[in-house]
Design a protein that fits this description.
CATH topology: Serine Threonine Protein Phosphatase 5, Tetratricopeptide repeat
Structural class: mainly alpha
Strand content: under 5%
Oligomer: single chain
Largest sheet: none
Helix content: over 70%
CATH class: Mainly Alpha
Distance between the termini: 14 Å
Order of helices and strands: HHHHHHHHH
Length: about 210
Protein backbone atom coordinates (compact mmCIF):
# COMPACT_ATOMS: atom_id res chain seq x y z
CA UNK A 1 0.00 0.00 0.00
CA UNK A 2 1.31 3.42 -0.94
CA UNK A 3 0.40 6.67 0.76
CA UNK A 4 -0.69 9.80 -1.08
CA UNK A 5 -1.33 13.39 -0.02
CA UNK A 6 -4.66 12.58 1.63
CA UNK A 7 -2.88 10.09 3.89
CA UNK A 8 -0.24 12.65 4.83
CA UNK A 9 -2.99 15.14 5.64
CA UNK A 10 -4.74 12.60 7.84
CA UNK A 11 -1.52 11.63 9.61
CA UNK A 12 -0.64 15.22 10.51
CA UNK A 13 -4.24 15.91 11.52
CA UNK A 14 -4.03 12.96 13.94
CA UNK A 15 -0.82 14.36 15.44
CA UNK A 16 -2.40 17.81 15.75
CA UNK A 17 -5.40 16.31 17.57
CA UNK A 18 -3.06 14.44 19.93
CA UNK A 19 -1.23 17.66 20.80
CA UNK A 20 -4.49 19.50 21.42
CA UNK A 21 -5.76 16.67 23.64
CA UNK A 22 -2.49 16.57 25.60
CA UNK A 23 -1.81 20.30 25.78
CA UNK A 24 -2.35 20.58 29.54
CA UNK A 25 -0.36 17.40 30.16
CA UNK A 26 2.62 18.79 28.23
CA UNK A 27 2.33 22.11 30.06
CA UNK A 28 2.44 20.29 33.40
CA UNK A 29 5.49 18.24 32.39
CA UNK A 30 7.28 21.31 31.05
CA UNK A 31 6.60 23.35 34.15
CA UNK A 32 8.66 20.83 36.12
CA UNK A 33 11.72 21.16 33.88
CA UNK A 34 11.22 24.15 31.60
CA UNK A 35 9.17 27.29 31.17
CA UNK A 36 5.83 25.57 30.79
CA UNK A 37 5.01 26.66 27.23
CA UNK A 38 5.53 23.32 25.49
CA UNK A 39 1.86 22.37 25.32
CA UNK A 40 0.90 25.69 23.79
CA UNK A 41 3.76 25.77 21.29
CA UNK A 42 3.12 22.20 20.10
CA UNK A 43 -0.61 22.86 19.74
CA UNK A 44 0.03 26.05 17.77
CA UNK A 45 2.78 24.52 15.67
CA UNK A 46 0.99 21.35 14.66
CA UNK A 47 -2.27 23.24 14.09
CA UNK A 48 -0.60 25.55 11.58
CA UNK A 49 1.40 22.71 10.02
CA UNK A 50 -1.82 20.76 9.51
CA UNK A 51 -3.53 23.84 8.08
CA UNK A 52 -0.70 24.32 5.57
CA UNK A 53 -0.98 20.69 4.44
CA UNK A 54 -4.78 20.64 4.35
CA UNK A 55 -4.98 23.84 2.29
CA UNK A 56 -2.19 23.00 -0.13
CA UNK A 57 -3.19 22.19 -3.70
CA UNK A 58 0.13 20.50 -4.46
CA UNK A 59 0.46 16.73 -4.80
CA UNK A 60 4.20 16.91 -4.08
CA UNK A 61 4.48 15.44 -0.59
CA UNK A 62 8.00 16.71 -0.05
CA UNK A 63 7.15 20.27 -1.03
CA UNK A 64 4.06 20.36 1.17
CA UNK A 65 5.95 19.01 4.20
CA UNK A 66 8.56 21.74 3.78
CA UNK A 67 5.76 24.31 3.67
CA UNK A 68 4.30 22.75 6.82
CA UNK A 69 7.66 23.08 8.53
CA UNK A 70 7.85 26.75 7.68
CA UNK A 71 4.31 27.26 8.99
CA UNK A 72 5.25 25.42 12.19
CA UNK A 73 8.30 27.61 12.69
CA UNK A 74 6.27 30.80 12.26
CA UNK A 75 3.60 29.63 14.68
CA UNK A 76 5.92 28.30 17.38
CA UNK A 77 9.22 30.23 17.44
CA UNK A 78 10.55 28.30 20.44
CA UNK A 79 13.37 25.81 20.93
CA UNK A 80 11.13 22.78 20.44
CA UNK A 81 9.20 24.57 17.73
CA UNK A 82 12.40 25.09 15.78
CA UNK A 83 13.34 21.42 16.20
CA UNK A 84 9.94 20.21 15.01
CA UNK A 85 9.98 22.64 12.09
CA UNK A 86 13.41 21.32 11.15
CA UNK A 87 12.05 17.77 11.34
CA UNK A 88 9.23 18.61 8.93
CA UNK A 89 11.56 20.38 6.50
CA UNK A 90 14.22 17.66 6.49
CA UNK A 91 11.57 14.95 6.14
CA UNK A 92 10.06 16.83 3.23
CA UNK A 93 13.37 17.26 1.46
CA UNK A 94 14.02 13.52 1.72
CA UNK A 95 10.93 12.79 -0.42
CA UNK A 96 11.07 15.84 -2.68
CA UNK A 97 9.02 15.44 -5.84
CA UNK A 98 7.18 12.31 -4.70
CA UNK A 99 3.40 12.09 -4.96
CA UNK A 100 3.20 8.71 -3.24
CA UNK A 101 5.38 7.15 -0.56
CA UNK A 102 5.68 3.82 1.27
CA UNK A 103 7.04 2.58 4.59
CA UNK A 104 10.59 2.77 3.31
CA UNK A 105 10.05 6.44 2.50
CA UNK A 106 8.64 7.02 5.99
CA UNK A 107 11.83 5.51 7.39
CA UNK A 108 13.91 7.84 5.20
CA UNK A 109 11.79 10.78 6.34
CA UNK A 110 12.19 9.83 9.98
CA UNK A 111 15.93 9.40 9.69
CA UNK A 112 16.24 12.76 7.95
CA UNK A 113 14.15 14.35 10.70
CA UNK A 114 16.31 12.78 13.42
CA UNK A 115 19.49 14.00 11.74
CA UNK A 116 18.06 17.49 11.48
CA UNK A 117 17.09 17.54 15.14
CA UNK A 118 20.53 16.29 16.16
CA UNK A 119 22.28 18.95 14.10
CA UNK A 120 20.03 21.82 15.10
CA UNK A 121 19.82 20.85 18.76
CA UNK A 122 23.42 19.64 19.01
CA UNK A 123 22.15 16.67 21.00
CA UNK A 124 22.42 12.91 20.99
CA UNK A 125 20.61 9.95 22.54
CA UNK A 126 21.06 9.69 26.31
CA UNK A 127 20.87 13.42 27.04
CA UNK A 128 17.18 13.54 28.10
CA UNK A 129 15.71 15.03 24.92
CA UNK A 130 13.15 14.25 22.23
CA UNK A 131 15.76 11.97 20.64
CA UNK A 132 15.51 9.44 23.46
CA UNK A 133 12.00 8.46 22.37
CA UNK A 134 12.29 9.31 18.67
CA UNK A 135 15.46 7.38 17.80
CA UNK A 136 14.29 4.03 19.29
CA UNK A 137 11.00 4.44 17.43
CA UNK A 138 12.82 5.04 14.15
CA UNK A 139 15.13 2.07 14.73
CA UNK A 140 12.10 -0.15 15.31
CA UNK A 141 10.37 1.21 12.21
CA UNK A 142 13.47 0.60 10.12
CA UNK A 143 13.71 -2.99 11.36
CA UNK A 144 10.04 -3.56 10.55
CA UNK A 145 10.51 -2.19 7.05
CA UNK A 146 13.50 -4.44 6.46
CA UNK A 147 11.40 -7.39 7.65
CA UNK A 148 8.65 -6.50 5.17
CA UNK A 149 6.02 -5.78 7.81
CA UNK A 150 2.84 -3.77 7.17
CA UNK A 151 2.26 -0.27 8.49
CA UNK A 152 0.09 -1.19 11.50
CA UNK A 153 2.43 -3.72 13.15
CA UNK A 154 5.43 -1.57 12.25
CA UNK A 155 4.03 1.44 14.06
CA UNK A 156 2.87 -0.73 16.96
CA UNK A 157 6.51 -1.71 17.52
CA UNK A 158 7.70 1.85 16.97
CA UNK A 159 5.25 3.07 19.61
CA UNK A 160 6.44 0.46 22.13
CA UNK A 161 10.02 1.54 21.47
CA UNK A 162 9.14 5.20 21.97
CA UNK A 163 7.43 4.37 25.27
CA UNK A 164 10.51 2.52 26.49
CA UNK A 165 12.72 5.40 25.40
CA UNK A 166 10.52 7.90 27.19
CA UNK A 167 10.56 5.84 30.38
CA UNK A 168 14.36 5.73 30.23
CA UNK A 169 14.55 9.54 30.33
CA UNK A 170 13.43 9.44 33.96
CA UNK A 171 16.86 8.10 34.92
CA UNK A 172 18.77 10.70 32.89
CA UNK A 173 20.25 14.04 33.86
CA UNK A 174 19.34 16.81 31.42
CA UNK A 175 22.09 18.26 29.23
CA UNK A 176 20.11 20.81 27.20
CA UNK A 177 17.68 23.69 27.59
CA UNK A 178 16.37 25.00 30.87
CA UNK A 179 16.18 21.48 32.23
CA UNK A 180 19.97 21.28 32.42
CA UNK A 181 19.94 23.78 35.29
CA UNK A 182 18.06 21.24 37.39
CA UNK A 183 20.89 18.67 37.04
CA UNK A 184 20.23 15.83 39.55
CA UNK A 185 16.80 17.26 40.37
CA UNK A 186 15.70 16.33 36.85
CA UNK A 187 16.24 12.65 37.62
CA UNK A 188 12.94 10.90 38.18
CA UNK A 189 11.05 13.18 35.80
CA UNK A 190 10.30 12.19 32.20
CA UNK A 191 11.49 14.52 29.48
CA UNK A 192 8.75 16.72 27.97
CA UNK A 193 10.36 16.66 24.51
CA UNK A 194 10.55 12.89 24.52
CA UNK A 195 6.88 12.90 25.52
CA UNK A 196 6.10 14.88 22.37
CA UNK A 197 7.93 12.26 20.29
CA UNK A 198 5.97 9.46 21.96
CA UNK A 199 2.68 11.26 21.28
CA UNK A 200 3.60 11.71 17.61
CA UNK A 201 4.37 8.01 17.22
CA UNK A 202 1.25 7.06 19.18
CA UNK A 203 -0.92 9.18 16.87
CA UNK A 204 0.59 7.54 13.80
CA UNK A 205 0.12 4.11 15.35
CA UNK A 206 -3.56 4.86 15.90
CA UNK A 207 -3.94 6.17 12.34
CA UNK A 208 -2.47 3.07 10.73
CA UNK A 209 -4.39 0.79 13.09
CA UNK A 210 -7.60 2.47 11.92
CA UNK A 211 -6.66 1.81 8.29
CA UNK A 212 -6.03 -1.83 9.11
CA UNK A 213 -9.36 -2.11 10.83
Amino acid sequence: MTLAMQNIQAMVNCIRDAMVANQDYLIELDQALGDGDLGLSMTKGFTEAAKAINESESADIGRVLVQAGMAFNNAAPSTMGTLMATAFIRAGKSVAGKQTIDLGDLVDMGEAAVKGIMERGKAKVGEKTILDALVPAMEALKASNEAGEAYAPAFEKAYAASQAGLEATKDMMAEHGRARYYREKAIGKQDPGATVAMLVVKALREYFASLDG
